[in-house]
Specification:
Uridine Diphospho-n-acetylenolpyruvylglucosamine Reductase, domain 2, binds D-malate, four-stranded mixed beta sheet, 4 domains, Uridine Diphospho-n-acetylenolpyruvylglucosamine Reductase, domain 3, seven-stranded antiparallel beta sheet, Alpha-Beta Plaits, binds zinc ion
Length: about 450
């Protein structure tokens, strides 16, 4: 193994002063957003072009040093921080955002482009980008592709993979694969973008993506509805999905989460009293969708109360009740974040039972539940647990397996869940994953300590 001095000198040959070794600066790249995962690294390397990324990967391969690719460091499963002393490869300087191709409704964006900048550019050209979520001001295109980011609009536009028409990436060998032409029909063999998307930096380092855009919807209405049970809220979500083709989001949260959000943010609750379950829906169309939403609501049973907003600031306030869950829970200490998907038919029972499962394992812990009701994705957050005590993670993920769910809906496997991958993937699937890893990253340079279980597991 090369010494730190040799590693830094060799990397400086590729990117000059963009090899950061200052301890305080490096520290801002080595802890994840939740503070549950804290690593350390000899250096953060900040290339500004695909050629430089390829040079960094080749140098690391030659030195026998592993690296962790990192975008906006908004990951929630310890997949983008150096937990095994890897070099951090920051892609934030790959900022090129090409002009929107208004004829095709597409754009090519560098890995370091931030989601909110992509939204803004698409909007300015009369289009929109179909993926959205709360960390839009920090999350980057490269990170979103690497983790196949989901978010609040998946039920209408699909996940990041569904937006991806092409990719430029550096394989573990240091070679560059680039296919950014944006042809919608292109049946010429393996779909590398689809394979690399969601591979969490284990197969290739994404440097740019060709993304599909969606029509901009100028008229929006948001409603928050209160229900007595999760099951009633999910029935309502199905009614909205069936009757509103312009439904863009259907999001769930509970009274405990709303109370916490209000106490942390100082916001007032949407209704005078608290109710057990809330569903936030957003409808977005070319013409005002308020009436269509009201009509759909009239055929929903068990609505206790409803509040509707059309003007942007009131809509944003309603969204904040849901989106501020993440930061509110984070104020209670590093949470265990279990992002899972369940068949919709089992989701209500799972949500009702999961707090007991947690309580039986860790009586002092608290469970927070919220998520994307429209696509069966619930975020089980548990506070009051030591970061490295994963008995609750194990209990909840086993329960997900028993219900036929997925142990990761949208955040990925990362370091946090690799030892439970078998709950969602067969031995043969995991062997195929390993074969792909060996083919594209033969020396295990790219994020070797995430996603796949340690050998033998
Ligand atoms: C969300 O849906 O708010 C995000 O996935 C973040 C989180 O799970 O905390
Ligand atoms: Zn989410």
């Amino acid at each position: 193994m090369a010494s730190n001095r040799v590693i830094v000198d060799r990397l400086r040959e590729v990117v000059g002063p963009q090899v950061i070794v200052d301890r305080d600066v490096v520290a801002s790249y080595t802890t994840d957003w939740t503070r549950r995962f804290e690593g350390r690294s000899v250096a953060v390397v900040r290339p500004a072009s695909t050629e430089e990324v390829a040079g960094v990967v080749a140098a690391c391969r030659e030195l026998g040093v592993a690296l962790v690719p990192q975008g906006g460091n908004t990951g929630l499963v310890g997949g983008g921080v150096p937990l095994h002393d890897e070099v951090v490869l920051s892609l934030r300087r790959l900022q090129t955002l090409e002009p929107i191709d208004t004829l095709a409704g597409q754009v090519t964006a560098g890995a370091g482009v931030v989601l909110s900048a992509l939204h803004q550019a698409a909007r300015a050209a009369g289009w929109a980008y179909g993926v959205d979520f709360a960390s839009r001001d920090s999350a980057t295109v490269g990170g979103m592709v690497a983790t196949n980011a989901g978010g609040t609009h998946v039920l209408r536009y699909g996940d990041t993979r569904a937006q991806l028409l092409g990719l430029e990436a550096v394989l573990g060998t240091g070679s560059v694969v680039s296919h950014l032409g944006g042809l919608v029909k292109d049946n010429t063999g393996y779909h590398l973008p689809g394979l690399v998307c969601g591979s969490e930096g284990t197969l290739a380092v994404v440097t740019a993506a060709r993304l599909h855009l969606v029509p901009a919807m100028p008229c929006r209405t948001v409603a928050v509805l209160a229900f007595p049970t999760v099951s009633h809220a999910l029935d309502a979500s199905a009614v909205f999905r069936r009757s509103l083709p312009a439904l863009e989001a259907s999001e769930l949260f509970l009274s405990s989460g709303l109370e916490l959000v209000c106490s942390v943010t100082g916001m007032r609750a949407p209704f005078s009293g608290l109710h057990p379950v809330y569903l936030l829906v957003e409808v977005a169309d070319h013409a005002d969708p308020t009436e269509a939403l009201a009509e759909a609501t009239s055929s929903v049973d068990h609505v206790i109360e409803v509040v509707v907003a059309t003007d942007p600031s009131r809509r944003a306030e309603l969204w904040r009740y849901r989106e501020a869950h993440t930061e509110a829970i984070n104020t209670l200490g590093p949470p265990h974040k279990l992002d899972v998907a369940l068949p919709l038919g089992s989701l209500a029972e799972f949500i009702d039972r999961v707090p007991e499962t947690v309580q039986a394992i860790a009586p002092a812990a608290r469970t927070w539940l919220f998520g994307h009701a429209g696509d069966g994705n619930v975020h089980v957050n548990v506070s009051g647990l030591p970061p490295d005590d994963d008995r609750v993670d194990e209990g909840v993920l086993r329960m997900v397996g028993d219900f036929g769910g997925s142990i990761s809906a949208e955040h990925g496997i990362g370091a946090a869940k690799r030892r439970w991958l078998y709950l969602s993937r067969t031995t043969d699937e995991i062997s195929a994953f390993r074969a792909l890893k060996r083919a594209l990253d033969p020396d295990g340079v790219l994020n070797p300590n995430v996603l796949l279980p340690t050998d033998g597991a």
